[in-house]
Amino acid sequence: MIPVAVIGASGYTGLELVKILSQHPEFELVYLATSEGGATLQELHPALEKVVSMPVEKADAAAVAQVAEIAFLALPHKTAMGFAAELLERGVKVVDLSADYRLRLDTYEAHYCPHIDRGHLEEAVYGLPEFYREKIRKSRLVANPGCYPTASLLGLLPFVPHLMPDAPIFIDAKSGVSGAGKKLSETTHYVTINENIFAYNPVSHRHAPEIAEKIDDLYVTQREVLFVPHLIPVTRGMLCSLYMQLENEVDPIEVLSDLYADEPFVRIRTEPVDIKSVAGTNFCDIYAKASGRSLFISSAIDNLLRGASSQAVVNANILCGFDETLGIPKYAYVP
Amino acid sequence: MIPVAVIGASGYTGLELVKILSQHPEFELVYLATSEGGATLQELHPALEKVVSMPVEKADAAAVAQVAEIAFLALPHKTAMGFAAELLERGVKVVDLSADYRLRLDTYEAHYCPHIDRGHLEEAVYGLPEFYREKIRKSRLVANPGCYPTASLLGLLPFVPHLMPDAPIFIDAKSGVSGAGKKLSETTHYVTINENIFAYNPVSHRHAPEIAEKIDDLYVTQREVLFVPHLIPVTRGMLCSLYMQLENEVDPIEVLSDLYADEPFVRIRTEPVDIKSVAGTNFCDIYAKASGRSLFISSAIDNLLRGASSQAVVNANILCGFDETLGIPKYAYVP
Amino acid sequence: MIPVAVIGASGYTGLELVKILSQHPEFELVYLATSEGGATLQELHPALEKVVSMPVEKADAAAVAQVAEIAFLALPHKTAMGFAAELLERGVKVVDLSADYRLRLDTYEAHYCPHIDRGHLEEAVYGLPEFYREKIRKSRLVANPGCYPTASLLGLLPFVPHLMPDAPIFIDAKSGVSGAGKKLSETTHYVTINENIFAYNPVSHRHAPEIAEKIDDLYVTQREVLFVPHLIPVTRGMLCSLYMQLENEVDPIEVLSDLYADEPFVRIRTEPVDIKSVAGTNFCDIYAKASGRSLFISSAIDNLLRGASSQAVVNANILCGFDETLGIPKYAYVP
Amino acid sequence: MIPVAVIGASGYTGLELVKILSQHPEFELVYLATSEGGATLQELHPALEKVVSMPVEKADAAAVAQVAEIAFLALPHKTAMGFAAELLERGVKVVDLSADYRLRLDTYEAHYCPHIDRGHLEEAVYGLPEFYREKIRKSRLVANPGCYPTASLLGLLPFVPHLMPDAPIFIDAKSGVSGAGKKLSETTHYVTINENIFAYNPVSHRHAPEIAEKIDDLYVTQREVLFVPHLIPVTRGMLCSLYMQLENEVDPIEVLSDLYADEPFVRIRTEPVDIKSVAGTNFCDIYAKASGRSLFISSAIDNLLRGASSQAVVNANILCGFDETLGIPKYAYVP
To answer: Which of B50, B195, B333 is the closest to C333 by Cβ?
Structure first.
């Protein structure tokens, strides 16, 4: 068993990491920490009583390095890169769930803050397994993708070679409230979002450059991405509806199948996808339909799993040379 | 007081008509019917006990004509046109909430069924007050718009003159479950749609031609409309997110203001709109933001009111020469 | 028209007061304030744009007294009594929605804080119209009941004479989240309460003594009340399930009818009540069923209307000698 | 591995059985059937694509007997007993999730229908492991408890010796909508139950005699049980609030601990329980608080797991002499 650590155990993605890793056949969760320390696991997550029992430390890189070979960082951006640098220097491999290593330096600094670990940024690999599998295998620092980019990129990347060059890609994304994290805000107050739906940060959300950059990275082509996220009254799950213009008519199901037929965690659907069929799993379900040269793609994931924690463990599986499906949730919460 | 009738009292839009008309200062609700008859108003709508009390008839055109000057038809399409023809011939004005008089003959027959009242179809006026007010005033047969076209058209029509000619208009619509009516179906089963969201009839929903046709009707220009409706886990309300390409950069708030500043039932918002602020009212709230020549518009209505019953009463107000805000709900259900 | 003021305009009950009073045929809303001032009505409640437009002051008793005859206080307890005292001394009648004047001095101080307006406490009348109508008519200070006591008392009071003397009254109450107010808390975070239900403050909620005291006040008898509130994943509405033991078998519907048949805002139901039929209204719907000498009563109200704001306006109607149904919402939000 | 069959694969409990058994370390799911046959597993449950793949038969007892040693019956009552009889005669052990073997003959026939398998009824063991573990171990026919009785009995049984003899036990139960099954009904229509809550079959639900009979069975004492189920707007989970009168004051947490401290699937909580902490698991979380001699107990389970499918597999574990926690879900779906 490979000993692993989770830093950032108090939030939703931290909880999901604990749930997956404590059941994993090849990873042994040996170290758990929050930035502050001082709370037991049962206080942080009462649902784990009689399920998982282990101490929660105040995060400390040296202590991690003594016991763990891989660390999962479920920390806010900026905090994450400080910690990652220390871990890497001590020989611990890192799967970082924050935004800190996902972007090129200039893109990152334009949308987040000054980067304080430029050295490692260059070697970081983007952890979208279907497209970066080989690079992940050889890396020691994986930048786990954001939830919106995961769902969007898996839906649109197969079609990039077929798109009209100058037409924008429109992404209408709908996220469950858990995507906003545990922090209290007017937006996540039950009375605000129940029986409601609204766009937020339209056109200017910082996941848009993450999507555009990966298109460029993989296909060496620049596309305008107009990204509009919406908050919807569900706890869990994300649906991305993508609208594009094709250069030539294609059979979209065939395009998807060419890329994904053998992928263990992508399912091509012939009926529009829904989030209930993926909530609780690492699957990305994709549906596509064209009308002439206009293309509609619908892509669904669990925002906390495929959009964060289970994808992180898939990346760790790859990193370690394991079968990438090992210990990864596949059974949806349905009904 | 002008005596009015509601035919089709058992469904959600029928209930909303009863609620509005029984409080209206100039209309007197004198006749209420369902296709089948045989149930009291309290059986159909227990919430109306101690509020509204009147008999529910089995629908009969001759009986309507004896007591009412205007009839609101909240019937399924096809049933509606049979009934409307009989009423018009007896001198009763009709506000029809079905699809039967909304479209040109060929469009209608391509998407619904053979039309059995072609004579009146030609004189029907499309009941979107902001764009057809003068024609409504002179008509005796108003085709009340569908909920999706109402929200979509109010959002996009102001921009039609500014659009790139060949680019499609993408409409990502999200509707509450009441839009699917009272009929039981797997889709509207609580367990199916709670904590879920999915597209249905993507690209081929029959509200798309209704939208395209009105663009053509008002601007004599043909546009490709790619319309994808989604079902969301809310009872009431609709949000339409529209994605378009502009020919030139414009200030979208200015474009909206030019058309709507004085409209009593359109509100231009500087923050993204939500459905809670319009649920319970006849308002259409609109937000718009451009990024270069890409345009995002968000438009919110109450699907049963602005998308059906309250807009129908606005049309009747106009038909009768009343102030069109008379008796129309403006107070949202918030919180 | 009688000029009235609302102090505490920013919360949910303040919003409902504005909605009701701005449409009321005999009250004119002339003064609106919050504790802090400094925000426009549209900022506080964007849904009121193009509906109600008036300034929001920083609350000042002298200013109220200059323009209004009646003031509605939608303030936190303790703040309310300070303000009420000042208003009463200046000749303004007060309908107080807080807890400050609902209880006897000792009960209040045991469950809230030291009382700072004992002088007026003695003359305050409990604003449950069905049982205190005559006293309200003659008063100048009405203590509007809490939402839980309103639903509970209307359900159980008719049965007090029939109860087994020593058996406790068990109240299992379920409240929508708006009852917890606008303040952010972990409990009202969407992710916490969506798809969830739980009891809070079981057995020791401070609405229990309010209920017990009114039983004593009306029937001169002391009863043990075991009150357990639950939070449920709905925005609006409250259902109270009451469990009691009868001394003798009675026909519960008959008992209810004897008291309530002519009440405009109580509906006796022969099927179990639900909150959707009352949400948006001042109705209290009541159902009862006995099994031998065990009695189950189910009582439903809108927590913000019958449980707060619309009942407050009913009390003001009574105070002014108006028909108590004047301007009071009766149309439920259904569907 | 012991070969097992699931009969009744199309419903929610059938789906949960497939999910648990296909991951179980000692059971091999070899036979899957519905009453009608003719649909693939992916058609019945699209979420299982790329997860579980096996044929779905038309249910046939002889075919089951050829391949399986244990059969789980997730069939409607009446259908179940016909099938169970055939299986038992062929030497297949049965865990029946229907009501058919839960009750004494007279109780069953009074609340359901004439019993057609009286022979086996006598030997059936009630599958509540905490109280019938030893009998289950030796049986070949386990009657899996209903969801309401499971949550209610686990909460109240420890207190039976301490109850006032003549006072009724009041049970206010709240169930998620999945408890009503997949069948379409007005009650389970999203628009009906969303933003709503109501009692149904109050006082006369047929789970009440199941509860009363087990109290009698275990403590040889008869108690009046007043049972009122409510439907709540959540998909999954159940909370039972129990109200009782004690003969003497007791420390309720101590009473619970005496019985349950070492139970793997009961958690005694010091804060009121919620359904989110148990949804997705076989846990029953229990909280209790007394006020003098009045007692409140709150008990939470996942209605489809502890209330049906996972408890069924626990029973099969016991039947086979396995550790009863083998393959049983313990990780809640939170957040």
So the answer is: B333
